[in-house]
Amino acid sequence: xxxxxxVTGILAGxxxxxxxxxxxxxxxxxxxxxxxxxxxxxxxALGGALADRLAWVFVAGYQASMRRSFPxxxxxxxxxxxxxxxxxxxTYPGTTLTGEPGNRRLxxxxxxxxxxxxxxxxxxxxxxxxxxFMLLRRDQPGVRIVTGAPKEYLSELVQGRAxxxxxxxxxxxxxxxxxxFPVFRSAESAYVRTALSAFxxxxxxxxxxxxxLIGGALxxxxxxxxxxxxxxxxxxxxxxxxxxxxxxxxxxxxFESLIAQKDQALHQLWVKDRRLIRGSLPGIASRAExxxxxxxxxxxxxx
Length: 303
Description:
The chain is of the alpha+beta class. It has helices at 3-12, 23-32, 40-50, 54-69, 180-206, 211-227, 235-262, 264-273, 275-278, 281-292, 294-302, and strands at 79-83, 96-100, 103-114, 119-127, 130-137, 143-147, 159-169, 174-175. Helices cover 51% and strands 19% of the residues. The chain has a four-stranded mixed sheet with strand order 1-4-5-8. The radius of gyration is 20 Å and the shape is globular.
């Protein structure tokens, strides 16, 4: 599928949001539409168009961002989790990687696993923010995923932690390189914004919104497509992403007014998780300011 085919399907009403009150429901829709077999941009956009709530917008963007950050990641239809965060309280000791290449072992805990009930694979850092990255199957011996009570934010998304008990790591499981973290930090917000633009476009069309609102969401989607053709990270992408994000935030206010009038159930779900829309904005603004030299100018003015 390409972007034009996706847009045509949404405009024609053949690609529509699917009722997915649980992670299992959205995962089933994802597999049914073979979303994960598309390129990373269409993965985010189609996943967002099929979503019926912001939790799945996040999932769609998150899955696409991993594809961009790990180009060697095998193209499979299931879900993957990027597992890096560790418990800061000391209750669950972080991960350690021991041994020599070809005979290494991973032990310890990671503190956050997204879509914990339905991921097939995990990309795990040796320790917090440290390479190497390792691609593991959830059923690999020594891997255990523990889920907890639903969180208030993105509550439908099953969130958990992972334990690794002397897990054997082969060299074929090593993935990513020194560019991975910078790419991921730039890509995640961009692909979530792609999914959000497709989500608003799909629901605005479904609800018979004004041509201006439908067109605004489509414009945001095309802008994301253009920006994501740029190298990540790059100064050009950083500045363009701030403009795109600002446009999407403004558009989201119009969209919220629409669903408050026409779909109260969706509005309640939207209000619960709408901090997803602005959550990455400070980081996007900071990267754009650095690209433009604004932060360094401000710093020198204070000294």
